[in-house]
Amino acid sequence: MSGSQRRLESRGDAPTKYVSPPASELQRLMWTKKGSKSNHMDEVQPRIFLGDMYAAKDKRSLKAHGISHVLNAAHGKFNIDTGASFYRDINLEYHGVEAFDMVTFDLSPFFYKSADFIRSALSLPTGRVLVHCAMGLSRSSTLVLAYLMIHEKMTLAKAIEAVGANRNICPNAGFLEQLRALDVQLQSTRLNSNRETF
Predict the structure, then answer these.
(1) Domains and CATH numbers, the chain
(2) Residue 1 pLDDT > 50, yes or no?
(3) For 76, which of 25, 29, 45, 98 could close a Cys bridge (C-beta 3.0–4.6 Å)?
């Protein structure tokens, strides 16, 4: 069974449980986009764009791409200090997450609120969301992966494959472990829920 497939572990009469692929296998899935580098902004899923600080500050490009919502995963005075007022003249919905790209930073408390913001953007017929950080590789990609896992019911491996096909991504080692924990939590809940319906 390949690392990108859902893994199940069963021991006799013990309940079946989901096992997230190891970080080393997940890292091999990330850099799959052809070419040596990504653009400032790439559409990684329908109407979901992943980008860097240059994309976030280029209002002309945001308008050209029809971006209606911006999720800044590097919000704050010492990061990419845009905020809702920066976008007032182009009428965008803004959500900021003050996160730092360090392996010790716990981004997981922001997973659900950020995922809900993305889902809210996509619930609008013309909604298009840019999720960005400084380089569009670690913090922002982590939040997009969490969205796909929470609301699109993808495993972490499937989410990485889906995003990585369109942009090179690289959540830091700490974020990857937080995503693996989310993966186990979500998939285990879904497995148990499915078993209860039989």
Answers:
(1) 41-191 (3.90.190.10)
(2) no
(3) 98
Closest C-alpha among 69, 74, 45 to residue 130: 69
Q: Which amino acid is at 160?
A: I
Please name the residues in contact with 48: beta carbons below 8 A apart, sequence gap of 6 or more.
118, 122, 128, 129, 131, 144, 147
Here the tokens at position 76 are 């704050």
Interval 140-188: pLDDT, tens: 999 999 999 999 999 999 999 999 999 999 999 999 999 999 999 999 8
* Burial of residue 12, with CB atoms counted within 10 A of its CB: 0-12 exposed, 13-18 middle, 19 or more buried: exposed
Give me the catalytic one of 133, 135, 169, 186.
133
Q: Which residues contact 72 (CB under 8 A, 6 or more apart)?
A: 56, 79, 80, 82, 83, 94, 95, 96, 97, 132, 133
Query: pTM of the entire structure?
Result: 0.88
133 catalytic per annotation: yes
